[in-house]
Amino acid sequence: MNHFQFISKNEKATKNFAKSMASNLEKHDVIVLTGDLGSGKTKFTEGILSYFGLENEISSPTFTIVNEYKKNDISIYHFDVYRLEDSSEFYEIGGEEYFEKGICIIEWGELIEDALPKNFLHITFSRDNQNENIRILTIDTNFKKWEDYFENIKY
User: Fold this and answer.
1) Helices first, then strands: H and E counts in the chain
2) Is residue 83 part of a domain?
3) Which domain holds residue 72?
4) Which of 42, 137, 140, 143 has its CA 20 to 30 A from that of 14?
5) 139 in a domain, yes or no?
6) CA 56 → CA 16, 50, 75, distances in Å?
7) How far apart are CA 76 and CA 105, in angstroms?
8) Are 76 and 69 in contact (CB under 8 A)?
9) Total number of domains constituting the chain
10) pTM higher than 0.70
């Protein structure tokens, strides 16, 4: 597991970081977002959607579990699994089938870790104790595509 870090000074920086990452996304990619409420997970998702021209489409999937966004032949599935009891509920909604259909962004994905595919990108959002606008994004990955990406980008 490789470990990278990005310090975001504000919401715009978080969205720009996500937007630049989105250029590397492909069908079957899974991104798990972990962090407290208000830590930047949805802003990050907004950044990804903005790369695809879908930033005005975002809505929180808190009560629907998953929202689907489509651009040409790319489907993006935005999950919020906070309200699920465990991964069995994820399987009941056919959650694992989405992994084959498109790009999956899963907020609170650590709650269904045993249902996740082997290769996924895990980003943990935390606040800086000195500055309320700063977010620390800790990125863990276990596959080469993302390791190469984070080793070679300048941020």
Assistant:
1) 5, 7
2) yes
3) 2-115
4) 143
5) no
6) 15, 8, 16
7) 8
8) yes
9) 1
10) yes
